[in-house]
Amino acid sequence: MSTRQHPQTSVPPEALHKWLSILVCALHSVYFLLNMLLMQKIGLGAVQIIVAAFSGYCFYSSLKERYQPWQSYTLMALLTFNILASASLMEFWAGAIFWSLALPLWYYNLFGLKKGFCFSAMIVMFSAAILYLRTDTSLFMPYRTVFNFTLAYSSVWLMCHIYEVQRQKTSLFLRALALQDALTGVQNRHALKADFSAVRKKAESIHMLIIDIDHFKNINDKFGHDIGDSVLIKVANEIKQSIQDLSVYRLGGEEFIVLLKGISDIQAYEQAEVIRKKIEQATFHSHTDAITLTVSIGISSLQPGQEFTDFLRAADVKLYQAKHEGRNQIRN
Predict the structure, then answer these.
(1) Burial tier of 305 (Cβ tally within 10 Å: 0-12, 13-18, 19+)
(2) What values do phi and psi take at 224, rounded to 5?
(3) Among the listed ranges 32-46, 186-200, 223-237, which one has the minimum average pLDDT value?
(4) Which CATH number applies to 189-331?
(5) In the predicted model, what is the mean pLDDT of the chain?
(6) Is 275:242 a contact under the CB 8 Å cutoff?
(7) 272 pLDDT exceeds 80?
(8) Quick check: 6 pLDDT over 60?
């Protein structure tokens, strides 16, 4: 529904980018000196000083908290080009091609599963082509060299891919723990605040329904907390079925929230009435008895410039009014 802050299960891309930048800067500065001063590889040295300078800029930007995703793409493009250029231009025994074995690790961690897979696939083809064209001496057999390198590269690639798949599964699991109410399965207060921040930028009108189960304490006292929990679960399901939407949240205790977007005050009231009637007509069961419930509902309409806390407080005031005036009512 919205862009939220989710729990991280690994090093975030911006942090990895920062430390990769300083590593690349240091390594390419050293290689620049070696190529320019000792090996007289001026063209390659020029590429390496460009990579070193840009990676230094990336590190500085990260320190100043000015990281942008394009910096990672540009840095990895320059690094990849330098590795492939070095493998193509330098003596084969120098082993520059082995640096390509590290590329899948960086691709997956910086760019995720799909892009990591695509970039890694391109590199194995380029690297295999370079190896085949360069291993034309009597010391190496081109086919065996390409075969062994491809196997080694693919094993690294496979491990990176498996790790990223598992990381994404873990991230989804932690996201559910962080943003979902453990008892009822609806979303929780953290999700409510995040979704509110997102939808207020898009929707022309937003209404909040705060729903409170009338005399819920009596249910816990009479039937026990296990029955009280089952009642909360069924109430949550009844609300979800009433609005056919994911915008249902448990605020805490016996209070639930519904966010309605792009509708009028009258339509918001009508939707609240659907929820009220559905719960009033539903039958909840204890071990031996049937239980009937009612709910009170307060409605607030988001005003220009209103923050989440004020929006929630306005709905809570209307809920208190409904409670004070006899319960099983709606006030807006």
Answers:
(1) exposed
(2) 100, 160
(3) 32-46
(4) 3.30.70.270
(5) 86
(6) yes
(7) yes
(8) no
Nearest to 297 by CA among 262, 332, 330, 264: 330
pLDDT digits (tens, 9 = 90+) for 48-63: 889 899 999 999 998 8
Please list, in sequence order, all residues whose beta carbon lies within 8 angstroms of the beta carbon of residue 244, skipping any fewer than 6 positions away.
Answer: none
284-285 and 295-301 beta bridge pairing: unpaired
As a whole number, mean pLDDT of residues 72-101 equals 85
Cβ within 8 Å of residue 153, ≥6 positions away: 100, 101, 104, 123, 124, 127
Q: What is the mean pLDDT of residues 14-24?
A: 88
Contacts of 275 (CB under 8 A, 6+ apart): 209, 211, 238, 239, 242, 243, 258, 295, 297
> Looking at the predicted structure, is the pLDDT value of residue 140 above 70?
no
C-alpha atoms less than 13 angstroms from C-alpha of 288 in its C-beta half-sphere:
3
What's the CA gap between 187 and 8, in Å, rounded?
19
Domain boundaries of the chain, sorted by first residue: 13-179, 189-331
User: What does the alpha-carbon distance between residue 292 and residue 280 come to, in Å, rounded to a whole number?
Assistant: 7
pLDDT over 70 at 227, yes or no: yes
Two tokens, residue 250: 């448990």
- Mean of pLDDT values over 155-176: 85
Question: Is 311 in a helix, a strand, or coil?
Answer: helix
3-state DSSP helix/strand/coil % of the chain, to nearest 5: 65, 10, 25
* Rounded to 5°, angle at Cα 88 from 95 and 72: 85
Please give the C-alpha separations between residue 222 and each of 48, 105, 227, 286, 287, in angstroms, as whole numbers: 76, 59, 9, 10, 12
Strands 290-291 and 284-285: antiparallel
Q: Which residues are catalytic?
A: 254
